[in-house]
Amino acid sequence: MKILFISDIHGIKTNLPKIKERFEELECDKLVVLGDLYYIGPRNKMIEGYDINYVREFLNSFKDKLICTKGNCDSEVDKMVSDFPIISELGLIATINEDLYLTHGHIYNESNWSKTNSILIYGHLHTPFIKEIESNTYINPGSISLPKTEDGPTYLFYNEEEFIIYDMNDQIIAKKTLKN
Hints:
Layout: E1 3-6, H1 16-25, E2 30-33, H2 52-61, E3 66-68, H3 76-81, E4 91-94, E5 99-103, E6 119-122, E7 128-133, E8 136-141, E9 154-159, E10 162-167, E11 172-177
């Protein structure tokens, strides 16, 4: 299984064409969006590329391959205007080798996680990383639209051998090879 993960779109369309291109190039089976789909939020200034209708149409075009978690900026109205389900709080993808737990990150994260020997993938922080803490792996793809690091916008690719965080120039930011 090949999965592309993005997070924290916040209604900004700028990098979505590149995500579609990479989804096709990498022959992904699923697109996972880790919340904060449409609303830019009161702490962020309005920026070029803000277009919630474009974002909605983009996400709807993936509806059969999309898994989407609810972020802290997502509302019931967002669920109503989307042609795909938005799961709340915590989701799970069971692969051949791993269980991948999915969340936005404002509730469950490395500071609030009780499972052991698990992989938790979450957004919310707008900062890309792969961390090993005790027996758990915590992965954040960063933000596709409003990054908080010098890496710029980032996304995560998973296949059954590795996790790779890329920037928008397809440079590797972080990588974790999985043991089989």
